[in-house]
Amino acid sequence: MSRTYHQPCAVYLAVMTALMPYSSPLMAADVVQFNTELLDLNDKKNIDLGQFSRAGYIMPGSYPLKIQLNQETLPEQKVTFYPSATDANESQACLTGDIVSQLGLKDEVIKDLTWWHDGSCVDLASIPGAEARGDLSTSTLYLSVPQAYLEYRTATWDPPSLWDEGIPGILLDYNVTARTNRPHKKGHNTYALNGNGVVGANAGAWRLRADWQSRLNHATGSGDPVNTDFQWSRFYAYRAIPQMRAKLTLGEDYLNSDLFDSFRFTGGSLRSDLNMLPPNLRGYAPEISGVATTNATVIVSQQGRILYQTQVAAGPFRIQDLSDATSGKLDVRVEEQDGTVQEFQVDTATIPYLTRPGAVRYKLSLGKPSTFDHRSSGDVFATGEFSWGISNGWSLFGGSLNSQDYNAFAAGIGRDLLAFGAISFDVTQSIARLPGEDRLSGGSYRVNYSKRFDDYDSQVQFAGYRFSERDFMSMSDYLNAKESGERRGGSKEMYTISLNKNFRDIGLSTYVNYSHQTYWDRPDSDRYNLMLTKTMDFGSVKNVNVSLSAYRNVYNETHDDGAYLSLSVPWGNGANIGYSIASNNNDVTNRATYYDRIDSQTSYQFSAGSARQGGTGSAYITHQGSNARLTANASYTHNGYTAFGLGAQGGFTFTPEGIDMHRVSTMGGTRLLIDTDGISDIPVKGRGAVVNSNAFGKAVVPDVNSYYRNKVKIDLNKLPDNAEVTDSVVQATLTEGAIGYRKFEVLSGRKMMVAVRLADGSFPPFGAQIRNARGQDTGIMNDNGQAYVSGINPNEIMVVQWVGEDQCQLQFPAQFDTLSANLLLQCEPITSRPPSFDKVKE
C-alpha cells in the first residue's frame, strides 16, 4: 500500500466535490463560489475556503517547488510568486535566471528573452507557446515549452545546462582484501593484506584526488621480516569544461590517446570527454575475463598503479566495469588461495576513431614523463590529436607527440561502412635519438574494425592488426631504453579480436577473445579465452544452465592452460545446485556446489569435491550492505592447505549537508547524497540497490553514472509505518566525480484525531490548515474543530492557519502512550515562534 503523502490534496478534492462549486457570471471565469448550504455544519459562517475560491490561485510568496519541464522533473528550488501586473486577482511565477539556465533553452532563444519585475523574472510571452502553472498540492511548477526551443536531450541524457556540479565535500574510498594460507605439510603459514583507494575533495567544479595502494606480506616462522609497502600512487585534480565537452586534468596522469601508447607523466591535459555525449555516442570500455581455480584475488594494474581489485569465487570471472577512459596495456594478476598466480596482459585498444559529421574531437597534453615514485624521467613533451567528421561516412584523424629527443607523427582515416560496420587505418612514424646511438626512425601501421550484426545477434566488439618496424619506438619504449641503456621488447605484430554471438533459438551465447603479440627481440605472447553458455529446460525444471570456459595464456615463455565446465540447476526460490570440473596445468578438480541468497543483499556458495591431493571444500559469501560490500571465503584441500580470505569495499562521504558511510565500486567516483529530512531508516532505492538512511537521515547512493540522468526513489513497500513522503522520486544529472545532493520531504511521527479549541471555547474554521515547523501540511480542520493530524512527535509545535495567516499554535504533549484515540488541544496565541517557522515563512 502506497504511503505517499497526499492528505491535503485528498481533502481539497473532497471539499470541492461536496460544495458543488459554480461560477458566477458576474465574476471572472476562474473565481469559484461555493454553496455552503450543502455542508452539514453547525456553524456555516465559520468557514475558511479562501484557498479554494480561485482555481489554481497561489498566494504571493516563496515556495519550495519541483519544476516539471514538459515530462521531465528538475530539482526542487524556491519559486517566488508575485501579483500579476495585469490582474490583481492573479499571481505569476517568477522564473529567475538560475531557473532559466536549467531549462536547456537554445542560445538563440535565450538572446530574445524579455524580463519583468525589474529584470529578475523572464517573461514567458517571449517564448512562443510556453506556459507555466503552479500546483501547491503536488509541490510542482508545471512548465510547457515547445521542443523546438530546447537543446537536444534524450530520455536518459540532459544537455549541459542541466548538469549539476554537486556540493563541496570530502571522500575516503577504500578496497581492502586479506588472506591467509596454512600448508598441511611443509612450508610456513603466510598471510597478506592488500589495499587501494582514493582520498578526495570537491570544491565547486574541481575534483582533487590522491590514489593510494598498500601491500603487506609475511611468512610466519621463516625468519624474514614483514614486507610492507604503502604508496601514494597519484596526485591530480580535474574538472569538466561543459562548454567544450572536455575534461581538464592537472597533476600526475597517464596519457589517454587513441593513437599513441600510454605512459605516466606530470603536467596537464585537455581532452574531449565522450561521457559528456549522449549514451549512444559514447565510447568502448575494456573488459577482462578468465577462470579462477580457487577463491582468488584479481588485481588489474597499469605501470604499477592498481586500477581494480576484487575477490572472486572459484570459476569463470568477467570484469566489465572498468572505466572507458582506460587506455594502453593492462597487467592482470590472479592470486589463487593455494599460492599459485596467473599473470597476463590485456590490450585496451579502442573501436575505430570515428566522429559525427562536422564535429571535432581532440586531446591535448603537456608535461614531463614521470616514474611511479613521482620523479621526472624525461624531457618536456607536448602531444595533440584530433578527429574530424568530414562527411557522413568519413573521419580524418591525426596527431603528434613531440619532445627534444623523441617525436612521433600519426595520421589516419576512418570509414563508417553502415551495414558492414566501421573500419579505420592509421600510420605512425617515430623518430628517436638514444644516448650514444644514431637516430632511429620507424613506422607502425594499424587497422581496426568494429561491427554490430543485429540480424545475427552478434557483435565484433573490436578487431585489430598492427605491424611495427624494427626501429619504431613508442614513447614507453624510448623512456625504458633511455633509463636502462638498452632496447628491449620492441613490438612487431599484434592481432586482437573480441566477439560476442547469441543463438537465441537454441539458448546459446558465446564470447571469444584472442590476442597475439610478437616482438623483435623477445618471445611471443598469446591470450585465448572462450566462453559458451547454454540454457535449457527439462520438463518442469526450467533454466538449466551449462557453461564452458577455456583459456590459454602464453606470457614470458610460461604456458598456463585451463578449462572449466559447469552445470547449474535451479533449486527452489533463487537457489541452485551445480556440478563443475576444472582443469589447469597443476590439477583437475571436481566440485558439487550449492548457491542461495539469505536476502536481497546477501548470497553464499558452498562447494565440496576432490582434487589430486584429496578432498576439497570451499565457502564464499557476499553481503552488499548499506555501509560496505563485504566478502568472506574459506578453502580446504586434504594434504594441501587451509586458507581464509576477507574483503571490504566502501567509502566515507563528508559534506556540509551531512555524512554517510556507504559501499562503493568506482573509487573516487560520482555519488548522490540523499537527505531524508533527518529521519532514519528510510529505504532509498538507486542504481539497483536499496540503502537505508543513517541515524542523521542521510544516505549515499554510490556509483552514479556521470552525465546521465539518474533517478532515485523511496521504496514505498519498505517505508516505516510512521513515515510518509510528499514525493517519492528525485533525479540528478551529475558531472564526473560530483557529490550530488537531493532532499526528500519526509513526514514522520504518530497519526491521530485531534480536537482543537480556541481560548474562547470556539474552534478554528472549517478548512483551516495545520502545518509543522518545516511548513508541511499535516492536517485540515473539519466540522466541530476536528482534524486527522499526521507526523506528530513529542513536544512538537504546529500552527493553525486560516485567511492566509498563522493564527495560533498547538503544543503536543511529551508522552503518547496513555493518550486516547482523540486528543483535545488548546490552540494558544503565537507568542514565541520557533525560529524554524520564520525560516519557512521567509
From TrEMBL:
Its main location: membrane. It is found in: Cell outer membrane. Residues 754-812 form the PapC-like C-terminal domain. Residues 1-28 form the signal peptide. Residues 33-177 form the PapC N-terminal domain. Keywords: Cell outer membrane, Fimbrium biogenesis, Membrane, Signal, Transmembrane, Transmembrane beta strand, Transport. Transmembrane segments: none annotated. SUPFAM superfamilies: FimD N-terminal domain-like. InterPro entries: Fimb_usher, Fimbrial_membr_usher_CS, FimD_plug_dom, PapC-like_C, PapC-like_C_sf, PapC_N, PapC_N_sf. Coiled coil: none annotated. It is a multi-pass membrane protein. Pfam families: PapC_C, PapC_N, Usher. Belongs to the fimbrial export usher family. This is Outer membrane usher protein. The lineage of its organism: Bacteria, Pseudomonadati, Pseudomonadota, Gammaproteobacteria, Enterobacterales.
